[in-house]
UniProtKB/TrEMBL annotation:
Involved in the regulation of the intracellular balance of NAD and NADP, and is a key enzyme in the biosynthesis of NADP. Catalyzes specifically the phosphorylation on 2'-hydroxyl of the adenosine moiety of NAD to yield NADP. Its cofactor is a divalent metal cation. This is NAD kinase. Belongs to the NAD kinase family. NAD(+) binds at residues 41-42, 46, 113-114, 143, 151, 154-159. The keyword Magnesium does not apply. SUPFAM superfamilies: NAD kinase/diacylglycerol kinase-like. PANTHER family: NAD KINASE. GO terms for biological process: NAD+ metabolic process; NADP+ biosynthetic process.
């Protein structure tokens, strides 16, 4: 098995990579059977972006945890790595596509967890929400709002009191962040075919930034979000610790 190892700058990640490489060798990603990033969830997202062309063509990713949470990663055991990879469970995920309109033009990015809008100042954000070109909420006053995939529903979406979505569900979560008006609106569950448009009201006095996972664009006027069904990525997880099981457990955590 040809493995392409890569590691973050987190303490211990480079050291662990050296231990793996000493046993299994290291290959260029273009020649490898699998990419193994070593780090945390943020580094996993960075790796997916870095090797997007190869991963889109079917190169799988098996993450090794050296981060804080490691929800998208596997345990850092060194022994029998090729066997673990061969026996791993596949999770096929499609990212969100974000088209953010700012003063300089439209910027497009992919997000694997969520697309989020945040207020940039002490002023609450004022946002109009449209789904498939129909206004569903004319005026949201909040710190922000986000659209999350099932894989990302246990991340910031859950912290914002959004629902946890099973991995196989064809659903997206639309979740407000600290909503002030309307007070009783807790968000919505949308089919993953939906196109969500978030229009910033009064962007000069109440500036808003948009983030595709950890990539931020400031002073946006409008953000369109929809799932990129043409892009399918294969994440691998230890057979006894699949992503679907992790998401299910989150629904019963206390």
């Amino acid at each position: 098995m040809k493995i392409a190892f890569t590691a973050s700058q987190k303490p211990g990640a480079k050291t662990l990579m050296d231990q793996f490489v000493a046993i299994y060798g290291n290959h260029d990603a273009g020649e490898a059977d699998v990419i193994v990033p070593i780090g945390g969830d943020g580094y996993m997202l960075k790796t997916l972006r870095r090797y997007m062309a190869l991963i889109r063509r079917g190169l799988p990713v098996f993450g090794i945890n050296r981060g804080t949470v490691g929800f998208l990663m596997n345990h850092p055991g060194i022994n029998d790595l090729p066997d673990r990879i061969e026996q791993a469970k596949e999770a096929i995920v499609s990212p969100l596509r974000m088209d953010a309109v700012a003063k300089g033009g439209t910027i497009s990015e992919l997000a694997f967890n969520e697309v989020s809008l945040f207020r940039q100042t002490q002023q609450a954000a004022h946002i109009r929400i449209m789904v498939d070109n129909k206004v569903r909420l004319d005026h949201l006053m909040a710190d922000g709002v986000l659209v999350a995939t099932p894989a990302g529903s246990t991340a910031y979406n859950l912290s914002a009191h959004g629902p946890v979505i099973p991995l196989g569900a064809d659903i997206l979560a639309l979740t407000p962040i600290s909503a002030f008006r309307p007070r009783r609106w807790r968000g919505a569950l949308l089919p993953n075919s939906a196109k969500v448009s978030l229009e910033v009201l009064d962007p000069e006095r109440r500036p808003v930034s948009a983030s595709a996972d950890n990539l931020e664009i400031r002073n946006v006027h409008r953000v369109d979000v929809e799932q990129d069904h043409a892009t399918k990525l294969t994440l691998l997880f230890d057979s006894d610790h699949g992503l679907d099981e992790r998401i299910l457990r989150e629904q019963f955590s206390t």
